[in-house]
Each structure stands twice: as structure tokens, then as C-alpha cells.
Amino acid sequence: MPLSSRHLLGLQGVPKEDIQLILDTAVTFREVLERPIKKVPTLQGKTVVNLFFENSTRTRISFELAQKRLSADTVNFSTSTSSTKKGETFKDTVKNIEAMKVDMIVVRHQSAGVPQFLTRISDANIINAGDGAHEHPTQALLDMYSIREKFGHLEGLRVCIVGDIAHSRVALSNIFGLKAMGAEVSLCGPLTMIPRDIEKLGVKVIHDIDQAIRENDVLNVLRIQLERQAGGLFPSLREYHNYFGITSERLEKNGKEDIVILHPGPINRGVEISSEVADGPYQIILDQVTNGVAVRMAVLYLLGTLNKADGR
Amino acid sequence: MKIVLKNVKLLNPEQKLNQSGDMLVTDGVIKKIGSLTSEDLKNARVFELNNKYVVPGLFDMHVHLREPGREDEETIITGSSSAASGGFTGLACMPNTNPAIDSAELVSFIKEKAKNHLVDVYPVGAVTMERKGEALSPMAELNDAGVVAFSDDGDAVKDAKILRLAFEYASMYNLPIMEHCEDESLKGGAMNEGVTSTFLGLPPMPSIAEDLTVMRDIMMAEYTGGKIHITHISTKNAIEMVRQAKKRGIRITSDVTPHHFSLTEEALKTYDTNTKMNPPLRTRADVDAVLEGLKDGTIDAIASDHAPHSIEEKEMEFIYAPNGIVGLETELGLALSELVNKKVLTLEELIKKLAINPRRILNLPVPKIAEGEIANLTIIDPELIWTVDVKAFRSKSKNSPFDKRLLTGKALGVINKGKMFFEDKFFAI
Question: Where are the beta strands (DSSP E) in chain A?
Fold first, then answer.
């Protein structure tokens, strides 16, 4: 069964079957990554453009590797300056790139809604690699893949996302994806970093990190962006670490040394997570990175081989 | 020159006028109302109007004409023509031009440019120099030059002390301060804060930013005895505060835009930048409060906040696109569709909010429909069903979220200053 959409804009509203299909397909590609020759001819002849309007080394490299391992032709366009500041508008940039005949566009942008906008001005398959504080679906898919790899299932698991939820694109995609797969999702962080009314998405909000540790099977620890302190969202990195940081003492104290720890990276050691935990036995942070390539291969493959008539 | 408006319903709640008949207009003056003789009809251009309404010319008290500064988006002439096409014979234009309207010379420049157009253009002066919120504009000079109100629209008057001085100074000339209510420290963001902004991942604008400034302004108006007009009011709490302030006898009035009574934040789900405005589209509860406020008179007027933007600026990534939409040519249609047809307001009540109250708030005379009066009129068909087509707008800009929307009710034409606009043409009468 093919995917029900020809784009991956987010996980909101994506049916369980689609997520299941992507995760199952990724298992095959994960196996490919263990071979001496890590390349399959699946997307030969397809052209993929990575349009990155915001700095991101790891996501771009992960996508690029995924494309190369599927034998697609890949081109990178990276700029961190907004199109409003240079002469050309975003629309013109995209129109120009499209005129060179591309099949798929992977896009990362500071503004929420850019992937949706792209579907209106381009015929390519659009993959969202992070838009503003909206969604980052492949990150959530690789998180789910990694959790499933660890537990064998997602249904019934209790997952807590810890940190700056309000400015995170990872949180929302995780909430939509995990809930679709039957997991329970809670959020933990300073209330200044929890968006208003987010409980209406069916998640529990906790501001006591010890409670979050006690009540969950998995912690997905988000990166604290240092500039948020300047914005006054929390008083100091020290206070953040003392009240929300994940340390081995804290895990021990709550009898949860074996809680599974995820982190989308890059890690601020000593802020949201201590080095001991980040390098400890129950973290799966580097597995996430490896799985990320496999999951992105699955998404590219499923969208790239979809007939135009399938999915809307 | 003679024209005859045949078979019309004359409606002016201000004069308690509601009668059917014909009207003879000679050289721009209403000569006769009632049944006309063959002598009256001789050499007259006759418009057979089949029981359509003739009301006092509509007035929009919140329009951005963009000239001087952004003539690529709108000019005094194109904006005025857009107003005429939407059924308006008068408008007040906001001072956030470049340079801002903070000098008598700019007021004269605008009036001079507008003087031969059918539509009366009344500039609003800036409260502070360059709208920076630091030093008062020359309010007395601006008053002499003909401004009808003061506003730093785009921003609220940032500083409470300056606001106090502005109220006191403007009171000498009985002019209102029109406030765009938004707390400076809570500014920023791209849409109303709530579950929808979380859902869409867009930076939020909290409704409390409007509420706090409305509260401050009400207190300051009460303390100084000044006149406050809350423009484009949009939140439930702000409306309730205005309601209570009116009960306490504070000199306060308010207006609302058509988009704030016809759309909710749900419209942003497509990330169409034509749904991005400030104040942002709010929740269903806010829209219900707007409707209630219109009904009970808490909201005195309807004004478009007509904000033309170029295509290239609006076709931008959502967070970078500018706020605002063009509104003059959909305003009456939306008001008739959403308010009169849905029985929120009667047609008489709507005419008060679109023609009478805006002029009252700005101390302007309200046109009368009577023999000997200058003809300043709008002809309305409240039942005409039409589809909005931005390409047909007279405005230079096309940024409207209402393109292709089906509306019931439209202006058929306007008459003012010896000129008429009818069937998409301007001509002398």
C-alpha cells in the first residue's frame, strides 16, 4: 500500500498506517546501512534538492547521505540569510530551482508554513526538514523508530518530551506521531517554554522533572538554545540545569536508571543533560543518528516511487 | 447637469427617513424628492433603480493610502477610487506613511492631491513626531491644517506619559486619539496565541497585548477627560472593557474591521499570508463578542483598516510577510452578508456604523438626504449576489483573503461633490 500523501509536510493528521509503513520500510534500509556497499539503485535518475534556509549540518548531511545511498542525484542550496534581505524573493528562488527540473525538494526554513507554500508553487514532492517551530517529521519518525527498536513497540509507552517545547519543531511532530501510534505523551519544562493551551493536543504538562522521570519509559530531551536565556525565558543555565537537567543522580534518586534517553542533538552537555547520562548505557542518541539515515531513505523511497495518481 | 434616481428607497436613520420615491439631483445638489414631473425629467439622465436603497455616503475611518512613501502599493487617487468602488464617499487616512503625517505641510499635500476626487479624504495626524512615541506632533498646527484625529497607528502610543500629554493637548481641539492597542513589550508574533498557533508552529501574539493597552487607555482617558477611539478592536476582553467604560461615562468609541467579524484564526491553517494581520484574526469567542458589541452599540463603527501590500511582499514566507489586507471593496458586502443577512444588525443600524457614527466620532457633518442638500449618497443593493474578484479591484493592491468569496449585497454607486461613480465609471453629474 502506498503512502496516502505525495508530500511529507508534518505528522499532524498522518494516518497510523503511513507511519507504520515508513518505519517498516526503514528497517530494510537500516539493514542496507550495515552492508559493506551501502548503496541501492532505487532512486536512480531522480533529482532531489536540499533547500536549507537555516543552518543545519546534521539534518542536511543525514538527508544527503540518504539520497546518495538511494542513488539519487542531489543538489544542495544553503543560505542562512533571509530572502527578504537579498534581492530575490523566496518564490523566485524556488521557481528557478524548479525550472531545472527537480523531482523532490527537502526544505528547512525559519518560517512555519514554508513547506505548505512550496506545494502551491512547485510540482515536486516536498519533504519538510523543519519549518519554524512547527514540524520536523523525519526527526520524529527517527525518534519513533529508535524507541520501537528498543522496546519492540510504541503502543502503550509513556514518553515525555523535556525542555523548550514552545520553540521546538521536534516536539509537535513527536506529539502527533507518538499519539497516532498509541503512545502516551507528556511534556516537561519551565512553563515559560510550554505553549499556551497545548493540553488541548491531548498531552499532559508537568513542571516537576522528578515526576516526569518517575512516570515515563522514555525521555526525549530537547536542546536548550542558549539565546533563550537572553530572551528571559529562564533565569540562568545553572538554574535550568539544577531544575530540569537530566543527571544520573536524578535518575537514581527516582529509581529509573534504566529510563531510555533520546536527544535530537546537538547536545549542550551540562545544561539539559549531564555527560554521564549523554554517554550512559540507556541513551540511544547515536542510534538515533544512524536510524535517521534509514528513516530518511524510507521517506525518500516511498515518496519518490509513488505514482502521481496515488496519494494527494 | 441633471440626474434622476428613479424608484429608490431613501434611508437615513439620522433623519428618521425611510421613504420610497424618486430623486432629482441638479449640479450635485438634491433638488427634489418624491414624485417628479415631466419637467423635472426633461434633459435628465435617468437611473432606473428598482427599489434599491439610497443612504448617506458611507465613510471609512481607517484607511492606509500609502502615499507618500509606497505609491507602488496605493496612491491617494487609487485608494480613493477603491473607496468609491466599495460604496464610500469619505475616508480618514492613517499617518503611518513615509514620511509620517506629522506636519501641516503633509496634511496639505494629501488634501491637495485628493481635492478633485469624488471621495473626501481626511488625514489623521500622528500623535508623536515620526510616530516614534517620544515627542508630541504639532497638534495645534495639524488641527488647523485639517486633521480629524490623532493616531500612531501601527503602534500604540508607547509611553504612558506621552499618552497623557496627547490626551490633554488633543482635548483643546476636541479631537480623539485613535489607538492601535498593542502593548509594546508583548509585540511580535504572526498570529493569535492559542491552540491554533501552537498547532501551526507560528510565533504567537497574545490577546492580552491588546487588552492591557485598552485598559491603560481607558484609565488615561478617564483621568484626563480626553476622547479615546479604540480602532480595530478585536478581543472579547477589550470589548467588555469598552462596554463598561461607556457605562461609566468615559468619552470612548470603537470600531471593528470586517475581517474581525467574518473570519477566525482557523483561516490561517492554509498559511495564506492574506490571513496575516495585526490585530490578528482571533477565536470564535472573540468574533461572537464582536457581534454582540456591534449589536449593543459598544462598537460604534465599522472600518476596513485597508492595508495594501505589493504581491511580492505578501507572497513571502509567512513570518516575513507584512500584516494587513485591502478592505474597501469587500467591506460593505461582508457587512451586509455577515451582519444584516444574518440578522445581527438591521440595515438602519449598519448605516449608522458605516456612515453616521464614523463622522460623528471625527466631528464631521453627516450628509442629509433632503432638498437643497449637497448629494453625498451611496446606492445599495442589499440582495445582489456577487463573487469577489481581486483582479477587478480599483485598489492597486490585491491582498485579500476574500477572493472568490460569494457575498450578498453591494454598493451600486456613489455620488459626491458633483461626481458620480456608477457601473465602474466616474463621471460629472
Answer: 47-52, 73-78, 104-109, 125-131, 158-162, 184-188, 204-206, 218-221, 260-262
Closest CA of chain A from B400, distance in Å: 17
User: What is the mean predicted confidence (pLDDT) over A233-254?
Assistant: 95
Q: Is A108 a catalytic residue?
A: yes
Residue A312: the pLDDT is: 43
Q: What is the pLDDT of residues A80-91, one digit of tens each?
A: 765 545 577 888
Cis peptide before B382 (omega within 30 of 0): no
Given A7, A30, A108, A169, the catalytic residue: A108
Q: Considering A39, A57, A58, A192, which one is annotated as catalytic? A: A58
A101 included as an active-site residue: no
Q: Residue B305 — φ and ψ, nearest 5°?
A: 55, 40
Verify whether the Cβ–Cβ distance B201 to A82 is below 8 Å: no
User: Which of these is catalytic: B120, B153, B305, B381?
Assistant: B305
ipTM, two decimals:
0.91
In a 10 Å sphere around its CB, with 0-12 CB exposed, 13-18 middle and 19+ buried, how is residue B295 labelled? middle
Residue in the block written with cell 519551565 = A190
Give the nearest chain B residue to A109 (CA atoms): B317
* Chain A nearest C-alpha distance from B214 (Å): 22
Q: Are B119 and B413 in contact (CB under 8 A)?
A: no
Inter-chain residue contact B318 with A111, CB threshold 8 Å: yes
- Predicted confidence band at A225 (pLDDT cuts at 50, 70, 90)? confident
Tens of pLDDT, residue by residue over B209-245, are 999 999 999 999 999 999 999 999 999 999 999 999 9
Distance CA B2, CA A54 (A): 66
Nearest beta carbon to residue B201 from set A112, A196, A200: A112
Q: What are the angstrom distances between the C-alpha of B402 and each of A175, A233, B263, B282, B387? A: 33, 38, 10, 17, 9
Asked if B350 contacts B382 with a C-beta cutoff of 8 angstroms, the reply is: no
pLDDT, mean of residues B10-36: 96
Whether the per-residue pLDDT at A308 is higher than 60: the answer is no
Q: Which of A191, A186, A177 is nearest to A214 (CA)?
A: A186
Helix/strand/coil for A35? coil
